[in-house]
Structure formats: C-alpha cells, structure tokens
C-alpha cells in the first residue's frame, strides 16, 4: 500500500500565494483522505540576498517564521486523530549563499519535520541573480542575459548538482524539489538540445546520497509546461535507479491539495519524508 500524502504545500505566509489559512489546507487534505500533509513554505531568503523577482515576493518573511511553526504545531495537535501534519520548509539553494542557508537550517532544523531543497535562483554571467520560474517575460529576459536558452538550462542543472553536493549541515534537506522546473516555459521557449548527461549525473548523485525526489504535479497546470516535475523520461530513469519519490501538489491555495495525483505513474516507489521514521 503506497502512502497518501501531499508533501509540498505553501500557505498564507507565502507572499505570492493565496490568503487561505493553513487550517483550510488541513481540512481539504482530510476531505481527500490523505494520511499526511506537509507544509513546506518557502524559507526566508538569506538576509543579504536581494530577491531578484520584479515583485520581491519569492519567500516568507523572517519575522513570520515563528508564527508559521507555531500555527503548524497547533494544527498538528488539533487534527492528530485525523491526519499526520508535518511542518517544514522549501529551502532555496543559491550559489554563493550556502553558508546563510546552513545557518538557517541549523537554527530551525530541530523544530521541523520535513524540508525540500529547490533551485529557483541562478547566478547569471553578469553576477546578478535571476528567478527562473517567475514569468514568461522574466524568462525571456533571462535567456538574453545568458545569451542562449541552452546556457540557462546548463546553469540550472549545474546549480542543482551543486545543491546536491554541498554540505549544508546536519539538517540538510534530503529531497530535491521539482527537478525539471527549468521546463516551466518549455513549450514557449524550446531548447535545441536535451540534457541527458546532466540529468544522468544528477540522478546518480541523488542515488549515492540516498536522497529522494519531489514528485510535483504543479507543472501539469502551467500553460507552457503541462508536465509533472520531473518529466516522464526523468521519472523513468530515476525509477530504474530505485530513487524514492515523494508526492506534492505545490499548492498555493487550499483547493488544489492533491491536485493531479490521479495522473501520477503507478509503477514507481512512493515514499514519505525521511524524518517521519525518526519520530
Ligand atoms: Zn511558491
Ligand atoms: Zn519551488
């Protein structure tokens, strides 16, 4: 029997999400008969890192962290007979800022049950930073900044590799978020090459480290993507390596909890976040 859970969920603490209260996500998860719900809010960005998105809305605020954890713990207790609630973060890996990320994890690692390590930010050739999944306009600007779309993809996969390799201390997340997020606008901006060798290398590293993959349905609902992250060919390769997958909707509103889970492949190994076993 495969575990049923939505392990990638945002909240009203996310500035680019909805105002839906955390409790409404819990109720929706219970209605969907899920065994688990994991809140993985975007961890605050390093204090001296300037959010490169036009709206500066990529992550939760530092001053909200305590309230977020507190509310998660309240709900965990209140609904304990109906669902297992986890509280955690989606942590950004940003080239050049891993020290700050490690400090954040050291500060809050003991208080959380789960975490995802994701790459949304890339360092551009002119040493500025960009956010790859913000908008089509922004993505177009990124392509011209890098000189070619292929170089954007290469840099993305290099950064993912770096995220997997880097030591981020004992609370480093062991699950890699939406591995093919770089394909969010792929139908609009196709590439002239495939990135098989990069992907193969990344999956090999994930296997070696004993990490898991976020199996993320959000891409299915993106106009220019229409695919699960990672895409089907990567899922197949990861499955051949017996890399475990952890399901997530990446919901930014309550009503999309577990959305698209009926379209997930059925012949793969689903797992639960590693910390669950420790408690
Ligand atoms: Zn988000
Ligand atoms: Zn993400």
TrEMBL record:
<dbReference type="GO" id="GO:0004401">
    <property type="term" value="F:histidinol-phosphatase activity"/>
</dbReference>
<dbReference type="Pfam" id="PF13263">
    <property type="entry name" value="PHP_C"/>
</dbReference>
<comment type="similarity">
    <text>Belongs to the PHP hydrolase family. HisK subfamily.</text>
</comment>
<dbReference type="InterPro" id="IPR003141">
    <property type="entry name" value="Pol/His_phosphatase_N"/>
</dbReference>
<dbReference type="InterPro" id="IPR004013">
    <property type="entry name" value="PHP_dom"/>
</dbReference>
<comment type="pathway">
    <text>Amino-acid biosynthesis; L-histidine biosynthesis; L-histidine from 5-phospho-alpha-D-ribose 1-diphosphate: step 8/9.</text>
</comment>
<keyword id="KW-0368">Histidine biosynthesis</keyword>
<dbReference type="GO" id="GO:0000105">
    <property type="term" value="P:L-histidine biosynthetic process"/>
</dbReference>
<keyword id="KW-0378">Hydrolase</keyword>
<protein>
    <recommendedName>
        <fullName>Histidinol-phosphatase</fullName>
        <ecNumber>3.1.3.15</ecNumber>
    </recommendedName>
</protein>
<dbReference type="GO" id="GO:0005737">
    <property type="term" value="C:cytoplasm"/>
</dbReference>
<keyword id="KW-0028">Amino-acid biosynthesis</keyword>
<feature type="domain" description="Polymerase/histidinol phosphatase N-terminal">
    <location>
        <begin position="5"/>
        <end position="95"/>
    </location>
</feature>
<dbReference type="Pfam" id="PF02811">
    <property type="entry name" value="PHP"/>
</dbReference>
<dbReference type="InterPro" id="IPR010140">
    <property type="entry name" value="Histidinol_P_phosphatase_HisJ"/>
</dbReference>
<dbReference type="InterPro" id="IPR016195">
    <property type="entry name" value="Pol/histidinol_Pase-like"/>
</dbReference>
């Amino acid at each position: 029997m495969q575990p049923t859970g939505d392990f990638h969920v945002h909240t009203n603490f996310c500035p680019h999400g909805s105002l839906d209260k955390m409790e409404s996500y819990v109720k929706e998860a219970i209605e969907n008969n899920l065994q688990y719900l994991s809140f993985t809010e975007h961890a605050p960005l390093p204090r001296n890192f300037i959010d490169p998105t036009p709206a500066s809305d990529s992550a939760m605020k530092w001053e909200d962290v305590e309230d977020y954890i507190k509310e998660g713990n309240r709900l965990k207790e209140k609904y304990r007979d109906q669902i297992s609630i986890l509280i955690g973060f989606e942590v950004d890996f940003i080239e050049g800022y891993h020290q700050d990320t490690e400090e954040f994890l050291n500060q809050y690692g003991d208080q959380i049950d789960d975490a995802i390590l994701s790459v949304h930010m890339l360092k551009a050739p002119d040493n500025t930073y960009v956010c790859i999944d913000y908008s089509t306009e922004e993505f177009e600007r990124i392509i011209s900044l890098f000189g070619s779309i292929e170089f954007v993809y290469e840099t993305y996969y290099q950064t993912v590799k770096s995220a997997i390799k880097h030591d981020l201390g004992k609370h480093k997340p062991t699950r890699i978020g939406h591995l093919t997020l770089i394909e969010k606008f792929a139908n609009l901006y196709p590439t002239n090459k495939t990135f098989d060798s990069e992907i193969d290398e990344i999956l090999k590293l994930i296997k070696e480290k004993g990490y898991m993959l976020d199996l993320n349905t959000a891409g299915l609902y993106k106009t220019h993507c229409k695919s699960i992250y990672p895409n089907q060919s990567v899922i197949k390769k990861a499955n051949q390596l017996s890399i475990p997958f952890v399901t997530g909707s990446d919901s930014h509103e309550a009503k999309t909890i577990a959305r698209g889970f009926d379209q997930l492949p059925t012949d793969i190994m689903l797992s639960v976040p590693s910390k669950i076993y420790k408690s």
